[in-house]
Design a protein that fits this description.
alpha+beta, 7-stranded mixed sheet, 20 helices
Length: 795
């Protein structure tokens, strides 16, 4: 939003400099981006009157003129096509300095003396472009300095407004805000009702009153649009960043800036039947004023007549009914469109207009008629004509709800952090237009949000307004004081941070990938699970919700491999999404922690043998992760057939008979399809399985010596090491540890069998173990292994 200081001064005569005004509103939340002069730097340019204008004797486009500048008459050669006798112009006299340090000196142009220069808007940096010299009104005083005549000692201020402050998208809104901040009254323009001089009206049918609760239109007959808008209006528009076009457009733009109410004018004689405010029908087309053709979509609010759409409501007018120099009768529109009906619609059509910018943020619905009367008075004054009566269609029950908000004074002080006197709070709320009403007990205040503030809805909004107007600079900068409280945490609970720390301590790096992945990758990694496809994905490669974290991890590995990273240990913690009719919304969301290991065990070094990572390295990392629960022995690793993993180098991890994770080498076929040239080891665990810790309990430390016994057995090749350890541990309370130290198959071992050697450490807390105790235990071990696993003791 741009505004110029002199226009604001008309409404709020604060006497403040433009820099002070900029600082004041910035500290109140209206951030000022820039403050710029409204014209370039120039001197000695005055209003002149062209007395004579003749063709140059030696040029086809130059003119020889005599110009009255008040105290003398100057001979000036000018090449502007619009130069003519009787024109009031901007004349730079000899000695003048124009923007860019361009000095005016006496000269001869093709043999004819020229003692000055007739200036265009561009040459004085009053505009970025111009088609000829400036044309001033006939009553412009000859000889007056241009700065004085145009009030050019002014500044243009650009304010960067947040989306909630639509009320400041107008001069009235900025003035209202400045008046509150400086405790000054605002001199709002007096807007009187313009009586109808003709009886002509135009029928209106609002079919969607939710989107358009109020629609006003008024017929104006016999206008002359060729008349220029007043210079003061053109200057105000220019200083706010809007180019003058014609009288009707200038006036509607002026109302847009002054009051914040967008308006639109139709050529009355091009309308068919009546105005209809309705939703567009898919496939309808509309040629816009810009000349572009828009194919309308369902959900778009349009202004139509009986022949079809004639404008995008609140966004852009149509070319077929636009006004031009031949227009004689005008239908002026002033409406309130609900923000929800306009929001995002302009972007759908690649448009960005001042009207849509305001409507989608919220326009004051009480000023619609006021804006109509203001515009009509200007049109009749500038373009002439006769106005008919206002035709209004309104549904008051569809207006935005303005709820009463009750706020205790103590709450305001608590939120802001200081004690603001009650009388100050009441004064601030009154000046903000909230009509505060103090409660009978004096403990609270009830306010009603103004019609121009859509962002005030709850008590903390009131606190913010009070703090803003009271002044953030007036609030002491104190360190916050709060009581320290110990956070309750169950000793048996394992935090996600604890789990991540274990992996980080083992050399893993955490990555964070998108929950959206390529469905093709998911089909390769986890073909048995149906992916959830997004209806409006960011891209085709991110169109499915991940069913496994491995998809993102493998993609991260591939990305780094392609950038010559030769060794990686990565992990990620996040949600997976699987279709499940029994889950809420039909989607089962589970927290998982997963990892990927690639390359060698360690970086190349002179004292360490370099080797590739293997299954047992990764399994060891997973086992260290399981140890955070204090019950790593309860987790069982079993061979399993997993589609993404190598069938001979993988395992399923179970807890109490339930699958809680996987670990293993990526399947060669999957590896090839995903573009990996070397193997990757993966693991995946449900986070819930790691969240509960077994609380350690005191156990007596034995004062008696331990004894170690070794065993070597023959078992079927299918028997797992875990099952052997489990059987041995069940052989009595004397067992302190079981360790398998040798596995052999081949020469000397029957086919289909393998030899396993293990050691057992025995210790009692009651006595020193004797030979008979050890023999009895050994017999028990051999017997149980034979009965349960078919094991045979080796000779």
């Amino acid at each position: 939003m741009n505004f110029n200081k002199l226009w604001i001064d008309e409404l709020v005569p604060t006497g403040l400099s433009v820099d002070t005004i900029a600082d004041t509103i910035t500290m109140a939340g209206l951030e000022v981006d820039s403050v710029n002069p409204v014209c370039g730097e120039f001197t000695n340019v005055v209003v002149g009157e062209v007395l004579t204008c003749a063709d140059h004797p030696d040029s086809d486009h130059l003119h020889v003129t005599t110009v009255n500048v008040g105290d003398e008459v100057l001979d000036i050669v000018c090449g502007a096509p619009n130069c003519r006798a009787g024109l009031k112009v901007a004349c730079a006299k000899v000695g003048a300095v124009l923007p860019g340090n361009f000095k005016i000196k006496p000269a001869k142009l093709r043999g004819v003396p020229s003692n000055g220069m007739l200036c265009s808007l561009k040459e004085l940096e009053l505009s970025e472009e111009s088609n000829g010299i400036i044309e001033f009104p006939a009553d412009a005083p000859v000889g007056m300095d241009i700065h004085e005549y145009l009030n050019l000692n002014d500044s243009s201020v650009e304010v960067d407004l947040t989306a909630n402050r639509a009320d400041c998208l107008s001069i009235r809104g900025i003035a209202r805000e400045l008046g509150v901040l400086t405790s000054k009254d605002v001199n709002y323009p007096v807007i009187s009702e313009v009586p109808a001089s003709v009886s002509d009206t135009f029928s209106v049918d609002v079919q969607d009153s939710d989107a358009c609760p109020r629609y006003l239109c008024r017929v104006i007959k016999n206008v002359d649009i060729t008349r220029p808008s007043p210079l003061w209006m053109q200057e105000k528009l220019r200083r706010c960043g809007i180019r003058s076009i014609d009288a009707i457009v200038d006036i509607t733009n002026y109302i847009l800036l002054e009051l914040g109410q967008p308006m639109h004018a139709f050529d009355l004689n091009k309308l068919n039947g009546q105005i209809i405010v309705r939703q567009a029908v898919a496939g309808e087309k509309l040629v816009l004023l810009s000349g572009e053709e828009a194919e309308l979509k369902e959900g778009t609010l349009v202004i139509a007549d009986k022949s079809g759409p004639i404008a995008l409501a609140g966004i852009f007018g149509g070319a077929a009914t636009g006004v031009n120099a031949e227009t004689r009768d005008v239908l002026l529109e002033s409406a309130f469109f609900a923000p929800s009906a306009i929001k995002n619609r302009a972007r759908e059509y690649g448009l960005a207009t001042d009207a849509s910018h305001r409507y989608e943020r919220g326009v004051d619905y009480t000023i619609t008629r006021e804006a109509m009367e203001r515009a009509i008075s200007f049109i009749l004054e500038v373009c002439g004509g006769e106005a008919g009566p206002v035709n209004e269609v309104v549904s008051p029950e569809k207006f935005p709800v303005r709820n009463d908000i009750n706020v205790p004074f103590s709450f305001i002080n608590e939120v802001i952090g200081i004690d603001i006197p009650k009388v100050t709070v009441m004064d601030i709320l009154t000046r903000l237009g909230m009509k505060p009403n103090e409660s009978a007990d004096g403990l609270s205040v009830t306010v009603t949000s103004p019609s121009w503030r859509y962002d005030i809805a709850i008590p903390v909004d009131i606190c913010e307004e009070v703090a803003r107007i009271y002044g953030y600079d007036n609030i002491p900068n104190c360190d916050p004081v709060a009581p320290l409280r110990m956070i309750k945490q169950c000793e048996a609970e394992v935090t996600t941070y604890d789990i991540k720390s274990v992996l980080a301590d083992n050399g893993y790096h955490e990555v964070v990938t998108y929950s959206f992945v390529d469905p093709a990758s998911l089909k390769i990694i986890k073909p048995e699970t149906e992916a959830i496809i997004l209806p409006s994905p960011i891209s085709a490669e991110m169109s499915a919700m991940r069913t496994t974290i491995w998809a993102g991890l493998i993609n991260t590995v591939l990305y780094n491999v392609n950038r010559q990273v030769q060794r990686m240990k990565l992990f990620e913690c996040g949600l997976t999404f699987i279709k499940d009719e029994n889950a809420e919304n039909g989607i089962l969301q589970e927290d998982h922690i997963a990892g990927a290991v690639y390359g060698t065990v360690a970086d190349e070094s002179w004292n360490t043998e370099s080797r590739d990572v293997d299954f047992f390295d990764v399994k060891g990392d997973v086992e260290r992760l399981l140890e955070v629960t204090g019950r790593a022995g309860d987790f069982v690793f079993e061979r399993a057939d997993i589609s993404a993993l190598h069938p001979g180098v993988s395992a399923v991890i179970k807890l109490d008979g339930e699958c809680v994770g996987y670990v293993g080498l990526i399947h060669p076929v999957v590896q090839k399809k995903l573009g990996l040239k070397r193997p990757v080891f993966l693991f995946d665990l449900k986070l819930a399985a790691l969240k509960t810790r077994k609380i350690p309990a005191y156990a007596e430390i034995s004062k008696y010596p331990s004894i170690k016994r070794d065993f070597a057995i023959l078992v079927d090749a299918s028997v797992s090491a875990d099952s052997i350890i489990s059987v041995v541990k069940d052989c009595g309370s004397l067992v302190r540890n079981v360790n398998i130290f040798d596995v052999f198959a081949g020469n000397g071992v029957p086919e289909g069998k393998k030899s396993i050697a293990f050691s057992v450490i025995l210790q009692s807390t009651e006595k020193t173990l004797e030979d008979n105790d050890i023999s009895s235990f050994s017999d028990s071990v051999i017997g149980n292994l034979a009965d349960k696993l078919g094991a045979v003791l080796r000779d």
